[in-house]
Amino acid sequence: MVGFAKYVSAALLCVQSFVSCVDPQAVYDGGIKGNKGPIKLRIGNGGAGQSGLIKVLADEFIKYEVKKGAKPFRVAWYLSDTTVSINYLQAGTVDVGFTYSEVAEKIAIKQGVAVSRHYAWRDHFLLVGPKANPANISSSLDILTIFSNIYKAAQNNKVTDPVQTRFLSRYDKSATNIKESQMWIGIGQVPWATAYSTWYHSYIAFPVQALKAAILLDEYTITDRGTYLSIDPSLAKQTVIYKAATDSSSDPLLNPAFLLIGKKATNLGTVNSFKKWVVDKKLGQKAIIAFKKSGKQLYSGAP
């Protein structure tokens, strides 16, 4: 664990100039007509932003605060995975991040980048892959056995195979990449190391784009439920979920999201109000649980 913590700590290092002048992916106004108020909250996140949850949380929080008497304001979302979100906190680019790595979050607090972390919701990692299933895996197997079977099948790929066994990695220090790396290390393999494994596809992209690529290329990959339910249903039908996380805290595929508050956060009153709103069972938690795509709930609330 010490070695892995050092790996995550190294991943948090960044050049400040690369992250200090970033434009937000979107700015939300709570649906309030004519709202040109100041941006009083800046949020860093990847998958939940792409799924639409960040927009829902931002809009509902703005409406809640205005109803209480606050002047209309806006919330900005910055597209970023866990590592980049923490880098943005360090640079003061964002005030808070919704992140997915306990180790990285605790290191950020220890290093003075963040001041606190708060359980926000539970997302769920999925192991998906081609319908042809060249690695012959099934949901009855535990996740490490599944990775072992993928490795063995990939090592024995033949040019004559109708569909070869390949694995797509986001390879970007995201929580998904870290989780996938833990699985490979768990079976004693590091396919990204020298000599590089030709079946290991390094594809640096955000969640939706990476999943689309894996599906179109007939590759196995780790994604999350929120991302899977956010892509076009016709595309989702072209892949198979071979293993899915449960809500159990001991499930290795559970993907908990924590609200991480940066030390350089501005508008601390708004930041603290947002923290309290997110964790409140009748407010933020209610909005998270109610969020659906195609009639399906994407996230579980915090335990």
Automatic annotation (TrEMBL):
Signal peptide start-end: 1-21
PROSITE patterns attached to this UniProt entry: PROKAR_LIPOPROTEIN
Membrane-spanning intervals of the chain: none
PANTHER family: EXTRACELLULAR TUNGSTATE BINDING PROTEIN (PTHR37945)
Protein name: PBP domain-containing protein
Source taxon at top rank: Eukaryota
Residue intervals of the PBP domain: 40-280
Keyword line: Signal
Xref: InterPro entries: ABC-Tungstate_binding, PBP_domain
Gene3D superfamilies, alphabetized: Periplasmic binding protein-like II
Organism annotation: Arthrobotrys musiformis
